[in-house]
C-alpha cells in the first residue's frame, strides 16, 4: 500500500522592523512601569514598523524572500501563498496578492486567512492539505501583522502587549517521513466580545463617530482571555499527543503562541512539559499575533534537529485555538 503523502517545512524566514519600543518608552506614554510589564507579561521590548508607507504585506514579502533565498528556488515555482493576518493592508485586495506581486510569484494564487493568533496554525494545516492532496508542490505560508496599526497607545492594558513582525515557511512534499503529522483546531464564537476590534467591519463601518470613540483599536478583557487560553492550549496539546500514541517525554519542542509569559508557563505546568523544551521569545518581540509561531521556528532553527517531534499551539481571538504535531524535516 502506498504511504500517504505528507507535507514538511523545508525553509523558514522572518522579518522584524528595526525600531524597538521598550518598556521604558511605554513608561513615558502611559501609567505603567518596566517591572509591572515584565512581571505580568514577560515582555521587555517589541518591534514597531514606523514607516507609514510600509505595512503588513511589506513585512510578509521580506520574510517570503528569505524563505525563497534559503531554499534556493525561483518564486515562479510557488503554487500557492497563504497569508495569516488580522491587519491586512486593505480589506481587499488580499495581502497575499500584494505579496505575490512583490516577490514575483507569477504562477501562485494567494489568499488571506483571518484567525487572529491561531492564524498561522490554521494556514499551515490548510497549506499542508494542499500538499497532501497532490494539488500543490510548493506552498508558502506567512504569518504577518502590523499590530501597531490597531493599538491604542493610551490604553495601558493593550499597548504593552503587541508588536510588529512576520515569519514564513515553505511547505513541500516529504521524502523521509518527516513533516506535519496531525492537527486539532477549534473555534468558539466570542459573543461576549472579550477580544475584538469594534469598528471597521460591516457591522460598524468607519465614520466620524467610530473614530472619535476610538473603536478601531483592539479591545480586550485580559483576565477572561488568559483563563480561556491556558485551558484551551493545554487541552489541545495533550489531545494531539495522546491521539498519536505519544507521551510528553516524546515531545522535543513546544512552539507556543507568544501572548503572555504567564499563559506559556501555566500551559507548561498543566501539560508537564519542561521549560527547557519550550520556545520563548516574547521578551524580544511581544505578541506579534499571526507571526509569533513562525518567529519561534526561525529563532530556534539552528537548535531543531532532523526528526525532532515539535508541537505548535495557539489561542486567539474568535475564539480560535489549536495544536499541530510535526516531525522536523530540515537537516
Domain module count: 2
As laid out across the biggest beta sheet, the strand order is 1-7-6-4-5
- Strand residue percentage: 15-25%
CATH topology of the largest domain: Peroxisomal Thiolase, Chain A, domain 1
Total DSSP helices: 11
Distance between the termini: 28 Å
Structural class: alpha/beta
Radius of gyration over C-alpha positions, nearest whole angstrom: 19 Å
Low-confidence segments, ≥5 residues, pLDDT <50? none
Averaged pLDDT: 97
What top-tier CATH class of the largest domain fits best?
A: Alpha Beta
Describe the fold and architecture.
The chain is of the alpha/beta class. The chain has two domains: 7-177, Thiolase/Chalcone synthase (Peroxisomal Thiolase, Chain A, domain 1, 3-Layer(aba) Sandwich), CATH 3.40.47.10; 181-327, Thiolase/Chalcone synthase (Peroxisomal Thiolase, Chain A, domain 1, 3-Layer(aba) Sandwich). Helices cover 32% and strands 23% of the residues. The protein is built from eleven helices and 13 strands. The strands form four sheets. Strands 1-7-6-4-5 form a five-stranded mixed sheet, sandwiched between helices. A four-stranded mixed sheet has the order 8-13-12-11, sandwiched between helices. Helix 4 (95-103) links the parallel strand 4 and strand 5 (109-113). Helix 3 (56-71) crosses helix 4 (95-103). The mean pLDDT is 97.
